[in-house]
Design goal:
Keywords: Membrane, Transmembrane, Transmembrane helix. The protein is 78% helix and 0% strand. By secondary structure, it is an all-alpha fold. α7 runs antiparallel to α8.
Length: 251
């Protein structure tokens, strides 16, 4: 399973593996600095905090997301694949929404426009905003995927899995964080799990797109389903070598 995931992500290419190691090391280092800052007061700089607006981890996440959007757009132009342009739009929207806090601002607009009473106005407004933008991006991805070449359909599936894990960190773990927001040390640990997990996944997305753009990495449907295909072939081989008559001899 590990080798199949590595092959799908392009980690068999040395430059991709090197970039992956550097970005993951950077992310883990930031997480360690946040933990030592929170529990030991070392280093004494609030810029290492996860979950803090415009702190170092958040700014690095912006850089990772911007690079991902740029690489996907570059691939869309060079390879002439609409699905990659759609993925570029996904990462651009994620970056713009996080940096400009669009979901909070648009939620207020929806709350005022439709007169939704509090305390439901803000959460329902955010759900409406994410739903509208998400459906538009999903439609663009579906159309682009339908007409993409097989290797780019496989790449799109990998990105979809990574995006799903990113949403898991941003939504599910964030909901868990609400229950321990004022409980130490769980508040710190869940913050690392949520924001650090998002940063790790963005690093994986970045290295994957880098491999597609500059190392000629191309995941194939066979790569993504190697385990299933191998098991099917083993079953065929066993059937071929098994004697047809296994019962007792007849007299």
């Amino acid at each position: 399973m590990r080798s199949r995931a590595a092959a799908a992500l392009g980690l068999n290419h040395r430059p991709v593996a090197g970039l992956f190691a550097m970005t993951i090391t950077l992310t883990l280092g930031l997480g360690l600095l946040y933990l030592t800052h929170s529990f030991l007061g070392i280093p004494d700089w609030k810029g290492f905090r996860f979950g803090k607006d415009r702190a170092l981890p958040e700014m690095i996440g912006y850089v990772f997301t911007a690079w991902a959007a740029g690489l996907a757009l570059y691939l869309a132009v060079v390879q002439r694949q609409a699905v990659l342009a759609s993925w570029s739009a996904v990462f651009a929207v994620l970056l713009a929404d996080d940096y400009f806090m669009l979901h909070e601002r648009m939620a207020k607009v929806i709350h005022v426009t439709f007169g939704i009473p509090q305390p439901w106005g803000q959460p329902l407004g955010e759900i409406g905003w994410f739903g509208a933008v998400g459906l538009a991006l999903l439609a663009a991805l579906a159309v682009g995927h339908r007409f993409a070449a097989p290797e780019w359909q496989a790449a799109s599936r990998v990105l979809a899995v990574l995006l799903g894990l990113l949403v898991l960190c941003g939504v599910v773990i964030d909901a868990l964080h609400m229950f321990v927001a004022d409980v130490e040390p769980w508040n710190v640990l869940v913050t690392v799990l949520e924001d650090g997990g998002e940063l790790l996944l963005l690093a994986v997305v970045l290295t994957f797109l880098y491999g597609l753009a500059f190392c000629d990495h191309r995941p194939t449907p066979e790569t993504l389903t190697r385990r299933r295909t191998t098991a099917r072939r083993r079953g065929i081989r066993r059937a071929a070598v098994t004697p047809s008559g296994t019962g007792p001899p007849r007299h």
